[in-house]
Amino acid sequence: MSVRPDLHQYYVRACQNLGQPENPFIADVLQEANKNDKIRGTKGITLKIAGNNHLVPVQRVTDDDLQVLASVLCNMVFVTGLDLRCNVLTDAGAKHMATFLQENSTLRYLNLMFNDIGTSGAELIARALHRNETLVYLRMTGNKIGDKGGMFFASMLQINSTLEKLDLGDCDMGTQCLIAIATALTQNKTVKAMNLNRPLLYSQEEETTVHVALMLKNNSSLVELHLCKHEMKNFGVERLCEALNENSSLRYLDLSCNKITRDGVKFLGELLKRNQTLQILDLSANRIEDDGAIHLSEVLAVYNRTLQALSVVSNDISGKGLVALSDAMKTNVELSYIYIWGNKFDEATCMAFSELIQTGRLKPNCTDVEPYEVDGHIHLAELSHGLKKHYYWTPSCGEVTDTDANASLAIAAVSEY
């Protein structure tokens, strides 16, 4: 068996060669990696150098630190993942990363979320992916690359044929960029998961939703799509549902934090009557109210047997609607995950969900409520379970892919990351 490369030793040497001081946090992570037995295997390891780790002293990674690290990792074939979230990387750091992506042939996962990369940095990384043939998952979440930066990623999607997951949420992208990305995804055959959360939209015409809908009519590879905070109203939902009637690949649709009402749910209901592929529907933080919940429950009870997870968190639903959903679960055995916190619980709701859990119809780890009794009355407490609780953060200890907190990973995983 060949001797394992000593990452820390290489790092110390690289710092000396480039005249850079050592970053103690990076040094600690590399020393820990040296002890990792997985290096001996074929799967590879992910280096977690996240700047928001509260359990150990963290000196956040700078552009100069990244230059040294990239020189160390360039030929380390066993490093297949790199988590650099919440550091202080700028466009200069993006330049080092772009060079690395063009030279490296083993990195499959790169997390750059919540750094300070702007438009020019986005251009460098996107252009590097024109040539890179190994990266499967890229997270740019929270870097303010803007509309221009997003356009470079749209161009990249026309050329790259390796990337499976791309996260451009909270990146301050605008209308022009979203339309360009939707157009690129019409032809792209490899991207399976796309996050377009929280763009900056100044129009009420919902042009971006219309273009996303046109894309979904033609795209046959997308499995997961996030459209959170798109100012989407009932008109937009109707366009999406029309398109999804012709789509047979999408399994996870995130429409959380929009302006969908009970009328929009009617279009979703008609879709669910016919759709045979959608497994996860996230309607959190809309306003479907009792009428919307009752309409959904009728469809789920009688017609749909494909949906596995539904989130209606914070939708102004009262007891009538919530009890209807619980009744739907008694006849629909496929619906296994339901999230209801943030609505108006009455005693009937508490009793209904308590009964579902006690009879075993609803597993305790498949919902975000837990019954408890006080003075003979049943109440519901909140549990830290959800479809994607660990989107912005991951626990510093324990497994990141905890299925209770990230149910969507267990239901509709699109890659190993």
UniProtKB/TrEMBL annotation:
Alphabetically ordered keywords of this record: Repeat
Membrane-spanning intervals of the chain: none
Leader sequence residues: none
Domain of life: Eukaryota
Stored InterPro entries: Leu-rich_rpt, LRR-containing_regulator, LRR_dom_sf
Protein name (database record): LRC34 protein
PANTHER family: LEUCINE-RICH REPEAT-CONTAINING PROTEIN 34
Tagged with keyword Lyase: no
